[in-house]
Design brief:
- The chain is globular, with a radius of gyration of 20 Å.
- Helix content is about 15%, strand content about 45%.
- Strand 8 and strand 9 form a beta hairpin.
- The chain has one domain: lipopolysaccharide transport protein A fold (Sandwich).
- The protein has two helices and twelve strands; from the N terminus they run H-H-E-E-E-E-E-E-E-E-E-E-E-E.
């Protein structure tokens, strides 16, 4: 899913801007400071984001002491493997500053290749590869659909649990996924 090193680099960069930006603004207000053009190395960024995880939101709160980052309002995570949209994204770190948990809330939508999952809340425990969707979760692939009160995926074991009120809708038109096989397979695995 989201590569921890990319995420940490993005959060670190955002935190650096929160320290640098006020100093820059203060310097611009002082008429005695000489005007300097920013170094081109600092301004230019590569256009190719295909190998990066990019998180955008209206607001970011980062607290190193409490080991979390909170992205709020119009959150979009774009990763080479998945795209996630939500109202809020909380990133939890361990003592070594490694990402251990992601919690998305509010109109959560995840898209990967031809699969789309929607829910009100999604939690991803990176240590055991467990993804839990809650709040009217639905997973769709083509005309196929799975829903229930809670949908839990274990990415490392390629298994899933839907409970209670599990419901599976299998589309019969243009069934290229082969019945229930649509749940865990990617295009490359077919």
């Amino acid at each position: 899913m989201i590569k921890t090193s990319y995420l940490q680099a993005i959060i670190g960069l955002c935190c650096a801007f929160t320290v640098i930006l006020p100093m820059t603004v203060g310097a611009a207000d002082d008429d005695t400071s000489p005007e300097q053009e920013p170094s081109p190395e600092l301004v230019e960024t590569p256009n190719d984001e295909s190998n990066h995880t990019v998180i955008t939101s209206k607001k970011l709160t980062y607290d190193k002491e409490k080991s979390f980052a909170l992205f709020e309002e119009n959150v979009v995570v774009t990763d080479p493997q998945i795209k996630i949209m939500s109202s809020l994204l909380r990133v939890v770190f361990n003592a070594n500053d490694q990402v251990v948990k992601l919690e998305a809330e509010g109109n959560v939508r995840m898209a990967q290749e031809d699969k789309v999952a929607t829910s009100e809340k999604a939690t991803y425990d990176m240590e055991d590869g467990k993804i839990v969707l809650q709040g009217k979760p639905v997973v769709r692939r083509g005309t196929h659909e799975i829903s229930g009160d809670t949908i839990t995926f274990w990415r490392n074991d390629n298994r899933m649990l839907v409970e209670p009120n599990a419901r599976v809708k299998i589309g019969l038109e243009n069934d290229e996924q082969g019945g229930m096989g649509f749940i865990g397979q990617t295009k490359e695995q077919k």
